[in-house]
Amino acid sequence: MSTSSILPLKLDAVWFRGRADIPLIKDFSIELGAGPRTVIIGPNGAGKSLLLRLCHGLLEPSQGSVQWTAPNAAKAQAMVFQRPVMLRRSARANIDYALSLHHIPRAERADIIEDVLDKTGLSRHADTPARVLSFGEQQRLAIARAWALKPQVLFLDEPTASLDPSATHQIEELIDAIHGQGTKIVMTTHDLGQAKRLGDEVLFLHRGRLLEYAPADEFFAKPQNDLAQAFVKGELLWWKRGEGPRRDPKHSR
User: Fold this and answer.
1) 0.90 cut: is pTM over it?
2) Under CATH, domain 9-82+152-251 is a member of which superfamily?
3) Long-range pairs of 203-206 with CB within 8 A, sequence gap ≥ 24
């Protein structure tokens, strides 16, 4: 909720190692500025969700640095997970709790809550226990909870995974609305159609490396990286440890 901008976000030679010191993010450098919606794509295991967690500060890099422009970045960003955690309380109380953690005065919370419940189409579920809502409604509530904080940057990890087309459309409309109010969107998706609909710029990851970073229209028209070309065509990409990447043009995802 800060007025000073926390962007751009700079990742400089970031590495992240998992168990047995295996590198999962490798020598990753990028600068993300305000404005364009950034969509991160790549095959399963590419490191998309891991990258979001590093950017959001949930994980520390093994090497390199993740730097925001302003020191108050933690309070000026939010993240919605693929499977959001719902507290054992009403939809309204879930949002109220998030606001309380950010020290929003109690007198101001009611109007903020009503506003985001209305924007996300959840007003009639305001007093419903969050955990009995449908998965699509829970995802909208997670977005409402984040939106209430008026973040400068919103990270979204596969926000429509497992949702039907109708619920997916609702979530995409919310993402557009949040972006329209000036919030920087950084999201992962496995859905290339969604990446085309929502993305202004694309990051293509494979095996923890950034192989291509380009405006969305240029990327989808003609990817420069050969693995990105195969991925856009729907070819399967995989690898075995100790070997280079493989692709199978006979099988699509």
Assistant:
1) yes
2) P-loop containing nucleotide triphosphate hydrolases (3.40.50.300)
3) 203/30, 203/38, 203/39, 203/40, 203/41, 204/41, 204/42, 204/228, 204/231, 205/40, 205/41, 205/42, 205/46, 205/47, 205/48, 205/51, 206/42, 206/43, 206/46, 206/231, 206/237, 206/245
